[in-house]
Description:
The chain is mostly helical. The protein is 64% helix and 11% strand.
Amino acid sequence: MQLSKAEEQLMKYLWKLEKGFMKDLLDAFPEPKPATTTVATLLKRMKDKGFIDYTLFGKSREYYPLVKKTDYFSKHVNGLIKNFFNDSTSQFASFFTSETNMSTSELEELKKIVDQQIKKQKQ
């Protein structure tokens, strides 16, 4: 299950806050802020999809994520690799490193990260 762009934006604020009431979520949006009813609709859809839940405090709801940010984006990247790069991480890496205008220092940093992961997996 995926989030719409608007739901994803709201989810990013909730991940950052870790938990929050409607007012906290509205405060996180830049101006012009969306209508309260719009955010309420997004929250309901996100709850129905299993991405968030809430705790009741009287009539107020404190929302919190059920899905970790890293899990959500990992699933997205894996889907991207599967759908656009024939399930080939090397094709994805080739595209990523050649088409994103990475500087030499950024490529060297990426190489360090890959080398560290290789070393970790060999242990």
